[in-house]
Amino acid sequence: MSNWLLHLPVLWMGVIVFAGIYLATAGLHRGIAVLAVGDRARIFKAISPSVLAPLATIYALLFGFLAAQVWSDGDRANTAVNREASALRSIVLLAAAFPGEPEQRVNGLLRSYIQETAANEWPEMGRGSVSLTLAPPRLSEALRTTLALTPGNEGQTIAQREMVASLESVLDARRQRVILSKSSINWVKWTVLLVQAGLLLVCVAMVHSDDPAASRIILTVFATGIGAAIVLIASHSRPFTGGISVSPSVLLQVLPDSSASSKSP
Predict the structure, then answer these.
(1) Would you state the pLDDT for residue 90?
(2) pTM tops 0.85
(3) Taking a C-beta distance cutoff of 8 angstroms, is the pair 196, 58 a contact?
(4) Using CB atoms within 10 A of its CB, is residue 241 exposed (0-12), middle (13-18) or buried (19+)?
(5) Mean pLDDT of 194-199
(6) Pick from 214, 222, 200: nearest CA to 51
(7) Containing H/E element for 68?
(8) CA-CA distance, 82 to 256, in Å (whole number)?
(9) Would the pLDDT of 204 be above 80?
(10) 206 close to 44: Cβ distance less than 8 angstroms
(11) Does the pLDDT of residue 264 top 70, yes or no?
(12) CA quadruple 43, 46, 48, 49: dihedral positive or negative?
């Protein structure tokens, strides 16, 4: 499936997919009608309508297989983003154990990380171009700053340890969402699904080749179902791409308040 199509809003994606399906179905109907003459008409009519049931079942199984994949990827992407946001919120709360400049420093780094992630990294994930080669510099600096803190009591020691663990959790959650941003349905799966849909439409057209009106009606019904299935799969095929995608809103909700940090004693 072309990347430009996956980036479209669902409405326009649906318009293009349905237009393509209907045009192909109309061409198929016309082609079968032209061929259904003489001995070919008798052969087409001899095809049993019962063959449609196994073809439709195979198509439904393929659709269910792909739907399970894309919805699983979507759930995992949401879980990774929520885990990342939860860990960031924990760091903000724990940083209060080191009031003053350390807290401001950590919160400032987290604030920059979240803003840069939402503004720059999210669009890049939608294109599948984010790399895991380098760690985010803001998180790396936050980790170094946390490790450099000198606890003055047992409470600060515990807070420092938990902050380090939370930062590691943020890095792990980010790795998961970057990996999932590259997840997609490969061309083999799309090809098999479309070939199976085409075979189903061909059989429908052949079975009803002696009745053009009935053929048009049943082909339109099947084409509509196939188009809806393709739109459903395509709109969810990449967790961070398109009109239905995981947004950074949860991360923005835990954005540290700069004014609150500046008031720390």
Answers:
(1) 95
(2) no
(3) yes
(4) buried
(5) 93
(6) 200
(7) helix 52-95
(8) 16
(9) yes
(10) yes
(11) no
(12) positive
Backbone angles phi, psi at 149, to 5 degrees: -65, 145
Q: How many other CB atoms are there within 10 angstroms of residue 68's CB atom?
A: 10
| pLDDT tens per residue across span 94-112 | 999 999 999 999 999 999 9
**pLDDT range class, residue 29, cuts 50, 70, 90:** very high
pLDDT band at 132 (very low <50, low <70, confident <90, very high): confident
Report the pLDDT averaged over residues 76-97.
95
Q: Rounded to 5 degrees, what are φ and ψ at 124?
A: -70, -35
Average pLDDT over residues 189-206: 92
Q: How confident is the model at residue 128 (pLDDT cuts 50, 70, 90)?
A: confident
φ/ψ region of 76 (left if φ > 0, alpha if ψ in -120 to 50, else beta) reads alpha
Q: How far apart are CA 43 and CA 184, in angstroms?
A: 41
Triad 172, 174, 179: Cα angle to 5°: 100
The DSSP secondary-structure symbol of 127 reads T
Tokens of 34: 């032209």
Contact 160, 151 (CB under 8 A): yes
Residues 6+ apart with CB under 8 A from 243: 8, 9, 10, 11, 13, 235
- What are the DSSP calls for 209-238, one per residue? TT-HHHHHHHHHHHHHHHHHHHHHHHHHSS
In contact, 220 and 54? CB cutoff 8 Å: no
- Give the CA dihedral 229, 230, 232, 235, nearest 10 degrees: 180
Q: Which of 199, 128, 138 has the alpha carbon at shortest distance from 167?
A: 138
Kindly report the length of the chain. 265
CA neighbor of 107 nearest in space, from 81, 132, 80, 138: 138
d(CA 67, CA 73): 10
